C-alpha cells in the first residue's frame, strides 16, 4: 500500500474528521479529498508524469493539497520559498525544468496552477532542460540548508516514504483523534513526515503562520490553544519553550539537531519523548527512538532504532592527518546509511551524482561521527567539525556530551577560537559556552574528572541564551562576539584589579578571585602569553610569561607588578 493509498483510506474512512486546521478555516477529509482530486485533474491537464511542479511554500491549505496531489499524480515536486532571492528560485526552477507553480487560492481555499513568475526565469543562455531520465520514480526534490557547504539539490524516491511513514504512525501512536502541529518550514524535509503521518492516519494537521510558532511563550500558547497531541521540533524550540499542564501533548519528538539530557528531563514530564535522526540525502528519518526517560539519558540521548528500508554501518576514521579508504566497521566512526531509503543523489549541472558505491549499492556517507555503546547509537560530532588545537585532534561534540552530564546544564557548544578574538590569528583556544545554573569553575572540575587534560577547554563561559541563525542553528560567530563584549581595563583600577579583570576575561570565570591560580582557572600557555601582552600594554613592559608561571596566585602576580612600578 502506497502513501497515497493510506491518505485515500483516511478520506474514505474518516470523511467528517478534521483534516487540516489553518488560519483560513478547518477542512474535513471529504472536502480535502475533493480538492486533491481537483488539483490532480489540473496537473494531468498540463503536465506529464515525472515532470516537476513547483509549490509555493506558504503555510496555507493549498500547499498541503498540492503536495498530496503531486504525489497522487506522480509529478515530483519542490517547495519554492518566495522569501528566497529571485536568482535562487530561478536556478531551482530552471534546473528542474519547472513550467508551473502551485499556489493557494485564499478565497476558495484550494490549490491552483499558474505559470512561472517573470522574475523566476533565467536568461535563455542559462536555462537547462530538467532532470535526465532515471529509473527511479522521484517523489520530490529538497535543497540542503548549506550549513555544511553550498546548498545542493537532492532527488528523493517516492517508494521508501510508505515504510517511513508507517513506522512513525506505529511508534508515535498516531490515530484519527491526533492533532499534529506542522512546525517545520516547507523547504525543510522534516515537514514531509509530520504532514504525511498525520494525513495517513486520518488525524488533523494544524498549519499556522510562523508568528504563532516562535519558540518560547508563543509556541507554548499555540500548543495549548490548538490542543496539539504530536509535536516534532528542534532542540532550540524545546529548550526555549516550557511545557505546561494545560497542554494535550502525547508525543514530543526532537529532530534537526543534537538532543540534550535536560530536554528529555523537561518534556518527558508532560508527554512520551522521542529522539529522531535523519539526513536530507535520505528519506527524511533514519532513526527514531521509543519513549525515552531521563534515567536512561543521563550522559547522552540515543538516536533510536532504524526507520524504514535502510540499514547502516560505522566506518572507522582515518588516523589524524592521514587519508584512508578503510571500510573497517568499528564502534566509533562515520555513520554510513545504506538501503532503499538512500536518496537518488545530488542533481548538479553535470547530471545526477548518485549515492552509490563502486558496486552500485545505495550508500550515503553522512559525515556524522557516531558511537555505539550498549546496543545504542549516539551522535558525537560532525566530521567536518573535528578540530586540531594544542597539537591534538578533538571532537567538540565529545566535550559537549561531557558538559551536559551536569544535570543543571541545558545546552552547550564547544568551539575553537583565537584568544584575541581576531579571525586572522591562528585559533589557539578551546572555548566552552553553556547555558545553566552551575558556575564555570564547577564545570571545569567536572571535566577534569571525566576527560583527558588536553580536552578541557581553556575558556568556560556561561551565557544566558544561545544566539541562533534563521535556520535554527547556533550562531557561532555571535557566540564569540558575546565572549569579547567585555569592559576594557580601567587604568584607574589597582594593579590587582587589572590582573583579575584580565584573568576573568581570558578564562570565562567571572567569579575568579585574587587567591586563584591562573592555570587552575583554565589558563594555558597561549592565554598566558595574551595575559602578559595585555599587562605590557598597561605599562609593565618587563613582565614575562615566567612571572605567570611562578606566581602562586593572581595576587602574587599583581604584587610583583606593583613592586616594579614603585
TrEMBL record:
Pfam families: AMP-binding, PP-binding. Residues 490-565 form the Carrier domain. InterPro entries: ACP-like_sf (IPR036736), AMP-bd_C_sf (IPR045851), AMP-dep_synth/lig_dom (IPR000873), ANL_N_sf (IPR042099), PP-bd_ACP (IPR009081). GO terms for biological process: amino acid activation for nonribosomal peptide biosynthetic process; secondary metabolite biosynthetic process. GO terms for molecular function: phosphopantetheine binding. One of its GO terms (cellular component) is cytoplasm. This is AMP-binding enzyme C-terminal domain-containing protein.
Amino acid at each position: 500500500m502506497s502513501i497515497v493509498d493510506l491518505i485515500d483510506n483516511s478520506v474514505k474512512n474518516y470523511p467528517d474528521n478534521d483534516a487540516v486546521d489553518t488560519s483560513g478555516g478547518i477542512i474535513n477529509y471529504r472536502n480535502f479529498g475533493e480538492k486533491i482530486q481537483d488539483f490532480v485533474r489540473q496537473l494531468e491537464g498540463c503536465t506529464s508524469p515525472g515532470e516537476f511542479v513547483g509549490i509555493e511554500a506558504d503555510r496555507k491549505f493549498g500547499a498541503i493539497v498540492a503536495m498530496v496531489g503531486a504525489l497522487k499524480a506522480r509529478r515530483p515536486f519542490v517547495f519554492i520559498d518566495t522569501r528566497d532571492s529571485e536568482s535562487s528560485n530561478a536556478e531551482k526552477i530552471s534546473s528542474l525544468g519547472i513550467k508551473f507553480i502551485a499556489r493557494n487560492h485564499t478565497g476558495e481555499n484550494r490549490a491552483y496552477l499558474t505559470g512561472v513568475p517573470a522574475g523566476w526565469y533565467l536568461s535563455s543562455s542559462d536555462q537547462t532542460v530538467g532532470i535526465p531520465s532515471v529509473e527511479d520514480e522521484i517523489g520530490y526534490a529538497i535543497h540542503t540548508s548549506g550549513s555544511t557547504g553550498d546548498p545542493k539539490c537532492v532527488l528523493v524516491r517516492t517508494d521508501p516514504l510508505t515504510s517511513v511513514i508507517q513506522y512513525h504512525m506505529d511508534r508515535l501512536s498516531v490515530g484519527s483523534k491526533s492533532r499534529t502541529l506542522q512546525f517545520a518550514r516547507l523547504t525543510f524535509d522534516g515537514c514531509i513526515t509530520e504532514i504525511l503521518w498525520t494525513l495517513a492516519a486520518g488525524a488533523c494537521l494544524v498549519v499556522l503562520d510562523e508568528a504563532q510558532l516562535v519558540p518560547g511563550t508563543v509556541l507554548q500558547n499555540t500548543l495549548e490553544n490548538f490542543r496539539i497531541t504530536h509535536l516534532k521540533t528542534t532542540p532550540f524550540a524545546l529548550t526555549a519553550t516550557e511545557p505546561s499542564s494545560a497542554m494535550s501533548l502525547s508525543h514530543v519528538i526532537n529532530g534537526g539537531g543534537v538532543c540534550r539530557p535536560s530536554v528529555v528531563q523537561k518534556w518527558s514530564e508532560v508527554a512520551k519523548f522521542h529522539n529522531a535522526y535523519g539526513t536530507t540525502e535520505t528519506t527524511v528519518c533514519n532513526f527514531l527512538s521509543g519513549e525515552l526517560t531521563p534515567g536512561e539519558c543521563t550522559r547522552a540521548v540515543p538516536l533510536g532504532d532504524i526507520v524504514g528500508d535502510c540499514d547502516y554501518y560505522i566506518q572507522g576514521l582515518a588516523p589524524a592527518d592521514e587519508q584512508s579508504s578503510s571500510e573497517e566497521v568499528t564502534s566509533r566512526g562515520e555513520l554510513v546509511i545504506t538501503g532503499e531509503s538512500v536518496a537518488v543523489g545530488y542533481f548538479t549541472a553535470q547530471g545526477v551524482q548518485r549515492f552509490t558505491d563502486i558496486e552500485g549499492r545505495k550508500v550515503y556517507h553522512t559525515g556524522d561521527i557516531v558511537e555505539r555503546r550498549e546496543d545504542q547509537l549516539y551522535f558525537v560530532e560532525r566530521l567536518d567539525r573535528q578540530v586540531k588545537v594544542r597539537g591534538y585532534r578533538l571532537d567538540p561534540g565529545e566535550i559537549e556530551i561531557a558538559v551536559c552530564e551536569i544535570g543543571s546544564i541545558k545546552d552547550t557548544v564547544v568551539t575553537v577560537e583565537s584568544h584575541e578574538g581576531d579571525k586572522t590569528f591562528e585559533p589557539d583556544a578551546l572555548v566552552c559556552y553553556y547555558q545553566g545554573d552551575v558556575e564555570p569553575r564547577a564545570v571545569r572540575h567536572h571535566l577534569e574528572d571525566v576527560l583527558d587534560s588536553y580536552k578541557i577547554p581553556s575558556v568556560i563561559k556561561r551565557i544566558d541564551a544561545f544566539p541562533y541563525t534563521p535556520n535554527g542553528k547556533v550562531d557561532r560567530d555571535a557566540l564569540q562576539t558575546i565572549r569579547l563584549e567585555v569592559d576594557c581595563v580601567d587604568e584607574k583600577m589597582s594593579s590587582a584589579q587589572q590582573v583579575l579583570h584580565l584573568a576573568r576575561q581570558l578564562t570565562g570565570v567571572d567569579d575568579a578571585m585574587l587567591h586563584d591560580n591562573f592555570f587552575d582557572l583554565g589558563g594555558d600557555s597561549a592565554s598566558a602569553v595574551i595575559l602578559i601582552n595585555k599587562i605590557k600594554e598597561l605599562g609593565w613592559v618587563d613582565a614575562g610569561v615566567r612571572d605567570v608561571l611562578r606566581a602562586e596566585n593572581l595576587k602574587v602576580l599583581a604584587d610583583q607588578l606593583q613592586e616594579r612600578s614603585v
